[in-house]
């Protein structure tokens, strides 16, 4: 109860929404059991004086949600182990029955060598028939159990795949999450460098996102994020990789795509987002249009993942500084000018 009071007190003092996610964050914070979570919260509060909705979501995804995923994987794993144990037990019983049947056959063979009358032969045959039926019943039971186990293990495998997919998906937008992005871009960069293929990266950020949250509330902010996610899903297809990078920032990896093509894709996304009107669900009020700023970089022979992201990020902030709602790449004069001023 003391932890609960502390958690609710933090929610009140920071004027956060009293939703289960926020309560869980502050309850865990109050217990002190998750030192990494406490550290990031203390650092963020010291730096900014508050925790934004994006901060809370990032903290939850990073420090709490994976624990639940691990628990679910453990439960499915336990069921798989239980299923295997049951099958192994049945197989052991079948092997014992097989050994018994083999002994019956050997015994019958010896008895047949010394049989003297029809009555003795009849008893031996009846014994063999009985042993054979028992063996058939055991085999049939084993076959049925193995069929059921195959189906059950297949279902459990699908559950594990679903959990894995969920652990790599951003729940708000349905795009890949940061973990998915980090894994995917590493693989894509390695493949592109190994094969000498072009690869481009788009990093983009929602313009004035904070003002949407401040003016209309976090639910409207979530709607903005969903709108951008929907635009990405409708625009990006095939082998291209889309992800919510963090907060209001998104990323798209474009394998086999040179800079000029990447700029076309980026502008297509920008226009797709801007074409949608944002409407407040509760009142039907039109809140305007959402715009994004985009930075584009292309993989160089001496690049690694970090340098590729760093240049795309620098291009993104050059787009923000030069008026927003635009696409800037590393070949554009705005980026070059920014780079020179930073060096100077």
Report on this model:
With 344 residues, the chain is of the alpha+beta class. 69% of the residues lie in helices and 11% in strands. It contains twelve helices and seven strands. It has helices spanning 2-13, 20-31, 35-48, 53-63, 65-113, 118-167, 178-195, 209-216, 218-235, 259-274, 305-321, 333-343, and strands at 199-206, 241-246, 249-255, 277-279, 286-289, 292-298, 327-329. Strands 2-3-1-6-7 form a five-stranded mixed sheet, with helices on both faces. A hairpin with a 6-residue loop joins β4 and β5 (286-289). α8 (209-216) crosses α9 and α9 packs across α10 (259-274). It starts with a helix and ends with a helix.
- In which range does the helix fraction lie? 55-70%
Order of helices and strands: HHHHHHHEHHEEHEEEHEH
Count of helical regions: 12
Give the termini separation.
57 Å
Question: pLDDT average, as an integer?
Answer: 84
Could you describe the largest sheet, including whether it forms a barrel? 5 strands, mixed
Compose a concise summary of this entry.
It contains twelve helices and seven strands. It is of the alpha+beta class and 344 residues long. The protein is elongated.
Please tag this protein with its features.
alpha+beta; two-stranded antiparallel ribbon; 12 helices; 344 residues; 7 strands; five-stranded mixed β-sheet; single chain
């Amino acid at each position: 109860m003391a932890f609960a009071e502390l958690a609710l007190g933090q929610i009140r003092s920071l004027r956060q929404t009293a939703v289960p996610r926020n309560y869980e964050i502050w309850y865990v914070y109050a217990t002190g059991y998750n030192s990494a979570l406490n550290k990031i919260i203390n650092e963020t509060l010291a730096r900014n004086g508050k925790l934004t909705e994006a901060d809370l979501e990032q903290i939850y995804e990073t420090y709490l949600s994976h624990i639940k995923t691990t628990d679910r994987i453990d439960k499915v794993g336990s069921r798989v182990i239980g299923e295997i144990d049951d099958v192994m037990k049945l197989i052991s019983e079948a092997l014992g029955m097989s050994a018994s049947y083999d002994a019956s056959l050997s015994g019958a063979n010896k008895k047949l060598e010394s049989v003297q009358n029809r009555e003795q032969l009849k008893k031996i045959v009846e014994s063999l028939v009985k042993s054979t039926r028992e063996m058939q019943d055991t085999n049939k039971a084993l076959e049925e159990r193995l069929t059921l186990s195959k189906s059950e293990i297949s279902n459990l495998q699908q559950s594990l795949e679903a959990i894995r997919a969920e652990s790599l998906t951003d729940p708000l937008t349905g795009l890949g999450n940061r973990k998915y992005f980090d894994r995917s871009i590493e693989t894509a960069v390695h493949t592109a460098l190994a094969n000498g293929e072009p690869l481009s990266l788009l990093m983009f950020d929602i313009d004035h996102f904070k003002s949407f949250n401040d003016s209309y509330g976090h639910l409207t902010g979530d709607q903005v994020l969903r709108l951008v996610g929907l635009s990405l899903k409708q625009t990006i297809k095939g082998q291209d990789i889309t992800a919510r990078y963090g907060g209001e920032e998104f990323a798209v990896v474009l394998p086999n795509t040179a800079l000029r093509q990447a700029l076309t894709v980026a502008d297509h996304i920008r226009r797709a987002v801007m074409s949608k009107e944002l409407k407040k669900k509760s009142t039907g009020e039109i809140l305007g249009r959402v715009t994004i700023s985009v930075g584009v970089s292309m993989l160089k022979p001496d690049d690694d993942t970090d340098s590729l992201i760093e240049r795309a990020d620098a291009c993104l902030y050059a787009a923000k500084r030069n008026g927003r709602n635009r696409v800037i790449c590393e070949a554009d004069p705005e980026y070059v000018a920014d780079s020179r001023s930073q060096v100077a």
